[in-house]
Amino acid sequence: MSAVLKVVGLGSGNPDRLTMGIVKTLQQASQIYVRTKEHPVMSMLEELKLEVSSFDHIYEAHDSFPEVYASIADRLLELASAGDEQSVIVYAVPGHPMVAESTVQLLREHCPQKGISLEILGGESFLDETFIHLGFDPIEGFQLLDSTGIRSSMLQPQLHTVIGQVYDEFTASEVKLCLMELYPDDYQVVVGHSLGVEGEEQVLQVPLFELDRVEGYGNLSLVYVPRSDDESLRQRTFARLHEIVGILRSPEGCPWDREQTHASIRKNLIEETYEVLETIDDDDPEHMQEELGDLLLQIMLHSQMEEEEGTFSVFDVIQGLNDKLIFRHPHVFGENKAKDAEAALQNWDAMKAEEKRRKGIEPEKASALDGIPRDLPALMKAYKLQKKASKVGFDWDSIEGVFDKIEEELGELRQAVAEGQSVDEQVGELGDLLFAAANAARFLDADPEEALSRTNRKFVSRFRYIEDVLHAEGKTLQEASLDEMETIWQRAKNEV
């Protein structure tokens, strides 16, 4: 048999708030352990002449809180297992045992497995003092977050938000940076130190950007972010975007948006993609932000159409993407290793093949050219086809073989034109030449689309240079001779 393990809460810090039941439990205990002696109620336990052991030394022996909590739980389990059924071990924690107490959650998980009787007695939580001293009613909407695990995706401006365990300025800085992803820098937040503890309590209202400049952070500190119905805060959330698109497509929404189908806005997806690419080429972050938003809108609209049909929603899209990213990166989220980008790509390809097997598709029986979108731009598709073929050994040993092929295809195109072959035959030979040129890009480890786009931009700049020079001379393109334009073109090659 083992000892009975009782967990009690020492409250938020005011000794007068301890219940008689908890005091009696402490007085009747065989052994008393506290998670930390850094708590105002410890003075009362000393007055009661209770012998108390703490786990403060464990904090110094580990680098992270999860390790600390696990070590404390393991030690308590050892002590309880070594005791007898007549003995009672009391483990006292700050606040309420079921509020922000990882050690208690670990004990609840492992005590039944080890046959240890576990009893939990409540206590005044720091939340009780928070509601009183900060003056808000949680029924209006409330969330409690841990400073050590807070992420911007958790934040909901329409809810009162309390962030606990803000131990020091560094933790406050991390909380500040997270909140700033959603809230403006000057948003008013509240810092509470030792709420309910006479002589130590402090309530400070500060703009968000000063959160980590506040002094006095410790074990009994928290940050409170008041709820707000300000729509400008929700404008930075994905939930609001989903809501807006749903409204646009609703009977009360926009007539034009309601009429659209996948087919009617199909071209928009391509156009918006190319507009994003243009901002990348121009190294224009400001417009890139705008164009990425336009591209995201297309994804939202297509997802909303399917949500209306009951097939899937944008959240299914996101889940599928998250699952895929985690599954295909075993070197990040699993046990595999990847020493470089090539190894990471091999992991990716291996997991893609595994995905197919799980869907009942045998990758070994599939074509080596499968997986290339049918409607890719032709030059990009040629590049990808050749890249796939090269993976199974259908390739030249060096780029010299590609050069020979380009010359061969150029000769066949010249011959087709010289012999007056049909337009269809001439176009076929031209396609062969372009296909061979795309292969050269692969050997150069260059994207042929990017290479041609660069040349297009260069041509536009130089041609506009010709227009500007002629305009300065009072001429138009139509009035200039080819020799004049060629002369200016040669100048442009050195200047633009």
Element string (H = helix, E = strand): EHEHEHHEHEHEEHEEEHHHHHHHHHHHHH
Give the N-terminus to C-terminus distance in angstroms: 87 Å
Number of strands: 10
Low-pLDDT segments: none
Count of runs of 4 or more consecutive helical residues: 20
Please summarize the sheet with the most strands: 5 strands, parallel
- Order of strands, main sheet, comes to 3-2-4-1-5
Roughly how much helix do the residues carry, as a percent range?
A: 40-55%
Report the portion of residues in β strands. 5-15%
Q: Would you give an account of this structure?
A:
The chain is of the alpha/beta class and 496 residues long. Helix content is 53%, strand content 10%. The chain has 20 helices and ten strands. The strands form two sheets. The chain has a five-stranded parallel sheet, with helices on both faces. A hairpin with an 8-residue loop joins β8 (188-193) and β9 (202-207). α19 crosses α20 (482-495). The longest helix has 25 residues, at 285-309. It is elongated. The N and C termini lie far apart (87 Å). The model has no long low-confidence stretch (mean pLDDT 90).
Task: Give keywords.
496 residues; alpha/beta; five-stranded parallel beta sheet; five-stranded mixed beta sheet; 20 helices; 10 strands
Question: In a nutshell, what does this entry contain?
Answer:
The chain is an alpha/beta fold and 496 residues long. It has 20 helices and 10 strands. The strands form 2 sheets. The protein has a 5-stranded parallel beta sheet with strand order 3-2-4-1-5, with helices on both faces.
